[in-house]
Specification:
The structure holds two protein chains of two kinds.
Chain A lengths: L6 E6 L8 E5 L2 E7 L5 E5 L13 E3 L3 E3 L6 E2 L5 E3 L14 E2 L1 E4 L2 E5 L23 E9 L3 H8 L5 H4 L14 E6 L2 E11 L3 H7 L5 E10 L3 E10 L13 E13 L2 E10 L6 H31 L12 H25 L1
Antiparallel strand pairs in A: 1-11, 2-3, 3-4, 4-9, 5-6, 6-7, 7-8, 10-11, 12-18, 13-14, 14-15, 15-16, 16-17, 17-18
Helix pairs in contact in A: 1-5
Chain B lengths: L1 E7 L8 E6 L2 E8 L2 E6 L13 E3 L2 E3 L6 E3 L5 E3 L8 E2 L1 E4 L2 E6 L2
Antiparallel strand pairs in B: 1-11, 2-3, 3-4, 4-9, 5-6, 6-7, 7-8, 10-11
Chain lengths: 346, 103
């Protein structure tokens, strides 16, 4: 299931250059490159003539992309402007062009109806740009469906089992989780009050005693999960809204479906301590990457089993509340999008 | 039948549910428009705890599969649950909340 009428992250800004980059989104091959002026462009990565990926070709004469096979030339809007060896360009000689916007050090793509592509609807990830925070972003390719990643990020209970060396510890197992919802978002909140700090927090925050720790997860459709996490020395008032003497981080996630069973996973971490020190940014990225590689192994094993035993039943447990609320929102949006497509077709 | 103390009235906020246990009875307590109601806390469909669910007006929605129940009467209002909830009589004495259990 894909929701097409939404902005998705296509690449980290530094990934797109004058060398064409191929990536598949929602089963469609896309080639991305920058114009001489530095603007990111996304075209269908399949020559209109004989299907060769245009990403195997090269940029010539400024911003013209030349196919490797017979030298057909395409401009940034996807129109074929030259067929070598002939005077004319046949009708229909064009490839699809996709809206792109660069924001928060990510390059965003719109896979749906271009008429609906409003950049104001891009989900807020300002922490990557904010001078009050240090931050970095990375990319993981996951051999699993994108919704498995959303599920994982909305579920706090797995931390105590999957991530015991980094962000999890047994203090989390019995902490109460609260789920709030509105028609288009879900918030999962867990406070762990007066408990030992997990390894990452000891490393980053230098805590010597117990802490009050918060994990507040915000889900925004279709696939954005932003976590507000942090800890302060216990008894200093964080549960009442006074965050002093501790550390805060934002864990920032954007999943873009590649196929039904594979995902482009863009993640980042922002920190509000030692913000100008690249070594600190590197340290929090290493910690979170360790955890996410543990998650990646889980997704890929889940997906492999789901392909081995298709449509097998599963049970739900109380910890799935946030996951199921998010899935219900996505199902509703998908039904609405399909209905709108049918109406448009009629 | 016996009255059992299950909560302090001050711990029950309007529009919130809390879980209580008396022997083998798992009970949800819920305050709606000032009145406290008690009903079985385990959803008959897939055994989720209703006290983790969503309260909207006079109804509570199961946190997992969205079965809905009338908080005052226990009536099942929508699937996938297929029966009404057991309800318990509630009385408040001073600051204490009691429910009546038949045993």
């Amino acid at each position: 299931m894909f929701l097409r009428n939404a902005w998705y992250v296509a690449a980290i800004d530094t990934e797109i250059s004058r060398t064409p980059l191929r990536r598949i989104f929602m089963n469609e091959p896309i080639v991305m490159y920058r114009t001489e002026a530095g603007v990111a462009v996304a075209l269908e990565d399949r020559c209109a003539h004989r299907h060769l990926p245009l990403s195997m070709g090269k940029l010539i004469e400024g911003d013209i992309l030349e196919c490797l096979y017979h030298g057909l030339c395409f401009d940034t809007s996807g129109n074929c402007v030259k067929v070598p060896g002939q005077q004319t360009v046949p009708p229909g000689a064009r490839v699809k062009a996709y809206p792109m916007v660069e924001r928060y050090h990510w390059v965003w793509i719109w896979m749906g109806d271009p008429a609906l592509a409003d950049p104001d609807t891009i989900t807020d990830f300002h922490w990557f740009d904010d001078p009050e925070w240090g931050a970095a972003t990375r990319y993981l390719h996951v051999k699993g469906n994108w919704q498995l990643v959303v599920d994982n990020l909305l579920d706090l209970t797995h931390l105590a089992f999957v991530h015991t060396t980094t962000i999890g510890n047994r203090a989390l197992v019995d902490a109460k989780v609260k789920v709030d919802r509105s028609p288009n978002d879900v918030t999962v909140t867990r406070w762990t009050v007066d408990a030992p700090a997990p390894p990452t927090f000891v490393k980053a925050g230098g805590f010597t005693g117990n802490v009050d720790r918060w994990q507040i997860i915000h889900f925004t459709p279709p696939s954005f999960v932003r976590l507000d996490v942090g800890a302060t020395p216990t008894g200093t008032g964080a549960p009442e809204g006074r965050r002093v003497g501790g550390i805060q981080m934002r864990n920032l996630n954007a999943m873009t479906p590649e196929t039904e069973t594979t995902t482009h996973y863009f993640y980042g971490q922002a920190h509000d301590f030692d913000i100008r020190n690249p070594k600190t940014t590197e340290m929090v990225m290493e910690q979170i990457t360790t955890a996410f590689l543990e998650d990646q192994a889980v997704f890929e094993a889940q997906q492999a089993n789901m392909l081995q035993v298709p449509n097998a039943p599963q049970i739900d447990i109380n910890a799935d509340t946030g996951v199921l609320q998010a899935r219900r929102i996505l199902d509703r949006l998908h039904t609405e999008e399909q209905a709108a497509l049918r109406t448009a077709a009629e | 039948m016996t009255w059992h103390r299950v909560a302090a009235a001050a711990d029950l906020d309007e529009g919130e549910a809390v879980a209580a246990e008396v022997d083998e009875h798992r009970i949800a307590l819920c305050r709606v428009h000032g009145t406290i109601y008690a009903f079985e806390n385990v959803c008959p469909h897939a055994f989720a705890l209703l006290s983790d669910g969503f309260i909207e007006g006079n109804e509570i929605e199961c946190p997992l599969h969205a079965a809905r129940f009338d908080i005052a009467t226990g009536e099942c209002l929508s699937p996938p649950a297929d029966r009404d909830l057991v309800t318990y009589a509630v009385k408040v004495e001073g600051e204490e909340v009691f429910v009546e259990i038949y045993s």
